[in-house]
């Protein structure tokens, strides 16, 4: 069964460093998403991406964050200058693009645990 | 902004019983309400979706109800099994103009004892 994959599973970085989290969405999916979950907290939406541009973004997704689809399979989240409070589990998700305005089930990856020291 | 309330206390039940989890929200009703399962250290897994004009949805041992007057959804697992032990997340989807943006609750932990 097709699934969303994410690498690395765990990333440790120093405060102020840049990190890139990678995701390979399900191959025929066209909508991509990033979420984060701080330990013990709820899953929070960061950004959605469709047709090579950001579709929606939350208040969390500020200028230190960026997303990119560098090729036909990868979808990346870059955090430019990490802060301690960026430590969290980051989940990628993807969904099919159906009719506009209809719901598309999202399939989540296993997550990348980011630890900022 | 939308506030979602799920019982923060774990629900402990005996195998074979029906588990009922509650999701309450405070503001306007969402277009869609979803339930997910999340195991420790894993991503959420979609279980069921119910639309604002639907009262009830079933899938195998799962049942979801949606009462827009009470602003509440109930999630039932019948004939529960220890393998059903996990955290169950409620998520409300609001249309952001480009796509649906889910707002998640903090989840309720279910523990099914053999």
- Give the rounded overall mean pLDDT of chain B: 90
Number of strands of chain B: 11
Query: Helix segment count of chain B?
Result: 0
Largest interface: A-B, 26 and 27 residues
Classify the secondary structure makeup of chain B into a structural class.
mainly beta
The residue ranges of chain A in which pLDDT falls below 50 over 5 or more consecutive positions are none
Strand content of chain A: over 45%
Question: How much of the polypeptide of chain B forms β-strand, as a percent range?
Answer: over 45%
> Can you count the helices of chain A?
0
- Return Rg of chain A in Å: 14 Å
| Shape, principal axes of CA atoms of chain A | globular
Question: Between the first and last Cα atoms of chain A, what is the distance in angstroms?
Answer: 37 Å
Order of helices and strands of chain B: EEEEEEEEEEE
Q: Sketch the topology of chain A as an H/E string, one letter per element.
A: EEEEEEEEEEE
Number of DSSP-assigned strands of chain A = 11
Instruction: Assign the structural class of chain A, choosing from mainly alpha, mainly beta, alpha/beta, alpha+beta, or little secondary structure.
Output: mainly beta
Using the CA coordinates, give the radius of gyration of chain B: 14 Å
Percent of residues in helices of chain B comes to under 10%
Runs of chain B with pLDDT <50, length 5+?
Answer: none
What is the straight-line distance between the termini of chain B? 40 Å
Question: What percentage of residues of chain A falls in helices of 4 or more residues?
Answer: under 10%
Please tell me about this protein's structure.
The complex is a heterodimer of chains A (117) and B (114). By secondary structure, chain A is mostly beta strands. Chain A contains no helices and eleven strands. Chain A has strands at 5-7, 10-13, 19-24, 31-37, 43-50, 53-57, 65-68, 75-79, 88-95, 107-108, 112-116. In chain A, strands 2, 4, 5, 6, 9, 10 and 11 form a seven-stranded mixed sheet that branches. Chain A has a four-stranded antiparallel sheet with strand order 1-3-8-7, with no helix packed on it. Chain A is globular and about 40 Å long. Chain B has 114 residues and is mainly β. Classes of the chains: A mainly beta (117), B mainly beta (114).
């Amino acid at each position: 069964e097709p699934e969303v994959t994410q690498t690395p599973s765990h990333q440790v970085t120093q405060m102020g460093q840049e990190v890139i989290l990678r995701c390979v969405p399900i191959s025929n999916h066209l909508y991509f998403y990033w979420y984060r979950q701080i330990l013990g907290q709820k899953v929070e939406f960061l950004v959605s991406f469709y047709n090579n541009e950001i579709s929606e973004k939350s208040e969390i997704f500020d200028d230190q964050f960026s997303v990119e689809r560098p090729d036909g399979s990868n979808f990346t989240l870059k955090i430019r200058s990490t802060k301690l409070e960026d430590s969290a589990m980051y989940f990628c998700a993807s969904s099919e693009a159906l009719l506009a305005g209809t719901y598309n089930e999202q399939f989540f990856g296993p997550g990348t645990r980011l630890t900022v020291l | 902004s939308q506030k979602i309330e799920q019982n923060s206390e774990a629900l402990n039940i005996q195998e074979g019983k029906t588990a009922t989890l509650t999701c309450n929200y405070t503001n306007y009703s969402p277009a869609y309400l979803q339930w997910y399962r999340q195991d420790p250290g894993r991503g959420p897994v979609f279980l069921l979706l119910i639309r604002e004009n639907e009262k009830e949805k079933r899938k195998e041992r799962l049942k979801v109800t949606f009462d827009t007057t009470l602003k509440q959804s109930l999630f039932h697992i019948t004939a529960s099994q220890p393998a059903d032990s996990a955290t169950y997340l409620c998520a409300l989807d609001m249309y952001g103009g480009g796509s649906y943006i889910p707002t998640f609750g903090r989840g309720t932990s279910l523990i099914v004892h053999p």
